[in-house]
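pasting for ref
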Amino acid sequence: MKGEPLPVSIPAFATADPRVDETEVTEQQVSEHRVPDSHPRYISIPSLGVVNTRVFAGGVDDNNILESPMNISDASWYDKSATPGSGGAVLINAHNGGITRNGVFSQLGTLQKSDVIEVERGDGKKFRYEVRENESMALDEVNTTGMKTMMESVEPGEEALNLITCDGRWVPRYQQFDRRIMLRAVLVE
């Protein structure tokens, strides 16, 4: 009614950012990936078939938006969040889809309570986390309270792993999806 386009359902691959590299990551690139000892090196989600996905450090862009990894097959650890084993909340995001194929977090919204996610640090130490919450949240809520929540553990006093990816409907006016998957897990070993 105001002349603004309504959100429409469009598959992720039809609206993805063309700047995202969709080149396949080789086994050699995965095995040669190095990070500082305390940083997350790989993330694995066995129930989704995600194995040893490279994790790169990232921050926020000039618009204060969480940076996404350059390659659709990689993940990005927010470098102002905790590191695995430090007792805080580790925050990792990745793409849900691209122009020609799915991203590493394309099925993140299907994870359920007690599903396991593993993070391996640069020194080879592995940490296992269990999902406690997994919800699709409206972008407005993400921006007002959701991101603060993602910097905290779902269980106060427990180490956390929190994952984010896009979800919902594509909004042409803003060139982004109107929802985010917000997954919260806690350390179990």
